Amino acid sequence: MLIQALKSKIHRVRVTQADLNYIGSITIDEALMEAANLIEGERVQIVNINNGERFETYVIKGDRLSGMICLNGPAARRVAVDDIIIIIGYGYMDFEEAKTFKPSLVFPNEATNLLD
């Protein structure tokens, strides 16, 4: 049996931009993507600490070490610049594999969105 389990998490990053007129998605600093084991196009869940919103979108690669976290398109209506969010990626895995799987957890500096 396959189950969906936590694969990746970027915990408590600050939204730096919200662009309603973009096609859609979340743009994430490439260094954060790599640290969290996320790839471009991957579906992620966004949890907004400030207002309780939870929604899904897909990842677009942002400039490395820019600290960029930009919600694009309709998702831009669910956040405000400077909101704190959690970005979660899930993966399908065998039930037994999931028992020992270790997800990639990233805790960036909230002020800069960079890894210390």
Description:
The model has no long low-confidence stretch (mean pLDDT 97). The radius of gyration is 14 Å and the shape is globular. The protein has one domain: Barwin-like endoglucanases, CATH 2.40.40.20. 11% of the residues lie in helices and 47% in strands. The chain is mainly β. The chain contains 2 helices and 8 strands, in the order E-E-E-H-E-E-E-E-H-E. Strands 2-6-3-5-4-7-1-8 form an 8-stranded mixed sheet.
For the termini, the CA-CA separation is 39 Å
The SSE string, one letter per element, is EEEHEEEEHE
Proportion of residues in helical segments: 10-25%
What structural class results from the helix and strand content?
mainly beta
SSE map:
Elements: E1 2-14, E2 17-19, E3 25-29, H1 30-36, E4 43-48, E5 54-62, E6 69-72, E7 84-94, H2 95-100, E8 104-106
Parallel strand pairs: 1-8, 2-6, 3-5
Antiparallel strand pairs: 1-7, 3-6, 4-5, 4-7
